[in-house]
Q: What sequence folds into this?
């Protein structure tokens, strides 16, 4: 990780059926990308509906309290959506789009959140936070592109950075797609067993004792 402050990674999502689940994306740059809909236009994935939402997200990770404007939010979303487009393309084996690379590179060229031994000399600005996120995105997209993967769950296109030691992470979350897969496997096993059972015990449809 190149971000000096080592911000915590992962965030809570609420699925369409109202279930809260924890998504560990594997990297702060992907967490950043996942504050929006990753380019598929589903408004329910948007976590940043107002500048205060951006400020809360930044405070939780960088410990700095901002007072962002609508224009700040637009700038942050522009960078975010570029990162989202790039990681999505990489996860699906497509080349990175130069216009999106340019957006990220422009932010990565600016001063980022400075490393400090003690209390910060000056609290970081939104631009420094965005520069740190852009630098981290460059690091991941350039040096770890082969670890950017798409969840293998049915109808799940969530992208994560596989940081597992064995490099075999398959799911966005074990408690979500991993669990669904286990349930489906168990059902298929039971169905296969029932099909091969020569004398299956079936409930008496009349409900009368034999
Ligand atoms: Zn999934």
A:
């Amino acid at each position: 990780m190149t971000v000096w402050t080592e911000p915590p990674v992962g965030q809570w999502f609420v699925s369409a059926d109202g279930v809260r689940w924890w998504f560990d994306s594997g990297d702060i740059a992907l967490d950043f990308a996942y504050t929006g809909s990753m380019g598929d236009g589903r408004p329910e994935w948007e976590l940043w509906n107002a500048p205060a939402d951006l400020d809360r997200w930044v405070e939780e990770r960088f410990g700095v309290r901002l007072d962002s404007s609508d224009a700040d939010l637009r700038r942050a979303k522009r960078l975010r959506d570029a990162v989202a487009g790039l990681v999505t393309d990489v996860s699906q084996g497509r080349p990175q789009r130069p216009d999106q690379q340019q957006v990220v590179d422009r932010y990565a060229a600016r001063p980022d959140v400075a490393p400090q031994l003690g209390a910060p000399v000056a609290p970081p600005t939104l631009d420094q936070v965005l520069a740190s996120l852009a630098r981290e995105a460059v690091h991941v997209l350039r040096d770890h592109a082969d670890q950017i993967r798409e969840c293998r769950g049915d109808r799940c296109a969530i992208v994560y950075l596989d940081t597992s030691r064995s490099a075999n992470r398959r799911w966005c979350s074990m408690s979500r797609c991993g669990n669904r897969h286990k349930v489906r496997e168990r059902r298929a096993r039971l169905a296969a067993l029932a099909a091969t059972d020569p004398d299956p015990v079936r409930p008496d449809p009349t409900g009368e004792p034999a």
User: Anything to note?
Assistant: The first strand starts at residue 11 and ends at 14.
